[in-house]
């Protein structure tokens, strides 16, 4: 199977962007992963100012140069700074080599201020992935428990997806609490469920396939913060068809990025 991983980071590795990218590729090689989608820089910044997310994107651009045929970048944007984010999209995607957008925890994605970014990405056929999570405790940044102030839940994601029914959107982590997250987005044909980050609990992928269909489930690992092997095991060990596994491990992602890859002259 041709395995493509939509969700990798630098955080958790060590060294320069190139050294960290090389480490990611070594992990991919050991487990037969063909392509990696890389986003966010050497450190995580929850609510970055424009100069910070520009620096983080520069770090990803440097890492991509390690092997631009295998590492594809997603531009990290902060909707709290809409105009600056749109300018960064132009710099990194329209006029640069990146192929999509990563949105994290600065602004809940149900907020209308995301609309301009999502619509511009769609105009250029760029992939849009949105972090989601349902937290109930154990978050050192929120002592009382629960999500960060701007962190999206899958219910927030569903609101965004309903506002843009013709734009494919990827719900990262399946909402963390995936039994709730999958249910939140199952009725939305443009909502794709990405399965990274959680423990490789039996039944997760089976539920996703049962509720939304294998054609709307996408593999991501959250490497190096998670074990690539354990994240792959969620799919390879799932009690679903071989055809479904092929879609999840790469076929669906290739279908979503095919228009922007063609625009940029990249090979699928």
Characterization of the model:
With 268 residues, this protein is α/β, with parallel strands linked by helices. It has a single domain, classed as TIM Barrel. It is built from nine helices and eight strands. The chain has helices at 17-30, 50-64, 82-94, 115-123, 154-163, 178-185, 204-212, 228-236, 242-264, and strands at residues 3-8, 33-38, 71-77, 100-103, 127-131, 169-172, 191-194, 217-218. An eight-stranded parallel beta sheet has the order 1-2-3-4-5-6-7-8, with helices on both faces. The protein is globular, with a radius of gyration of 17 Å. The chain starts with a strand and ends with a helix.
Layout of helices and strands, plus pairs?
Blueprint: E1 3-8, H1 17-30, E2 33-38, H2 50-64, E3 71-77, H3 82-94, E4 100-103, H4 115-123, E5 127-131, H5 154-163, E6 169-172, H6 178-185, E7 191-194, H7 204-212, E8 217-218, H8 228-236, H9 242-264
Parallel strand pairs: 1-2, 2-3, 3-4, 4-5, 5-6, 6-7, 7-8
Helix pairs in contact: 1-2, 2-3, 3-4, 5-6, 6-7
Short description:
With 268 residues, the protein is of the alpha/beta class. The chain is 41% helix and 14% strand. The chain has nine helices and eight strands.
Features:
268 residues; alpha/beta; 9 helices; 8 strands; 14% strand
Mean pLDDT: 95
Q: What is the radius of gyration computed over CA atoms, rounded to a whole number of angstroms?
A: 17 Å
Order of SSEs, N→C? EHEHEHEHEHEHEHEHH
Please provide the count of β strands. Answer: 8
Distance between the termini: 14 Å
- What structural category do the secondary elements indicate? alpha/beta
CATH topology: TIM Barrel
CATH class placement: Alpha Beta
The stretches of 5 or more residues where confidence is low (pLDDT under 50) are none
Strand order of the largest sheet: 1-2-3-4-5-6-7-8
Number of domains: 1
Give the amount of beta strand, in percent: 5-15%
The CATH superfamily is Metal-dependent hydrolases
CATH architecture: Alpha-Beta Barrel
Number of helices: 9
């Amino acid at each position: 199977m041709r395995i493509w991983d939509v969700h990798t980071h630098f955080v958790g590795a060590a060294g320069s962007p190139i050294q960290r990218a090389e480490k990611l590729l070594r992990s991919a090689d050991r487990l037969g992963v063909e392509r990696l989608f890389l986003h966010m820089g050497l450190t995580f910044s929850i609510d970055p100012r424009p100069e910070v997310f520009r620096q983080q994107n520069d770090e990803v651009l440097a890492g991509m140069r390690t092997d631009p045929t295998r590492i594809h970048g997603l531009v990290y944007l902060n909707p709290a700074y809409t105009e600056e984010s749109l300018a960064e999209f132009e710099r990194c995607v329209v006029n640069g080599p990146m192929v999509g957008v990563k949105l994290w925890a600065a602004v809940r994605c149900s907020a209308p201020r995301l609309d301009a970014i999502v619509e511009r990405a769609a105009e250029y056929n760029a992939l849009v992935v949105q972090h989601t999570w349902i937290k109930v405790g154990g978050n050192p940044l929120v002592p009382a428990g629960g999500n960060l102030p701007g962190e999206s839940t899958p219910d927030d994601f569903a609101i965004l997806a309903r506002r843009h029914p013709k734009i494919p959107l990827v719900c990262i982590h399946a909402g963390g609490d995936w039994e709730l997250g999958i249910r939140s987005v199952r009725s939305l044909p443009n909502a794709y469920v990405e399965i990274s980050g959680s423990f490789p609990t039996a039944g997760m992928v089976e539920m996703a396939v049962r509720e939304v269909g294998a054609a709307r489930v996408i593999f991501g690992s959250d490497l190096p913060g998670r074990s690539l092997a354990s994240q792959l095991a969620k799919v390879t060990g799932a009690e679903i068809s071989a055809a479904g596994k092929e879609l999840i491990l790469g076929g669906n992602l290739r279908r979503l990025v095919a228009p922007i890859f063609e625009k940029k002259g990249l090979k699928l």
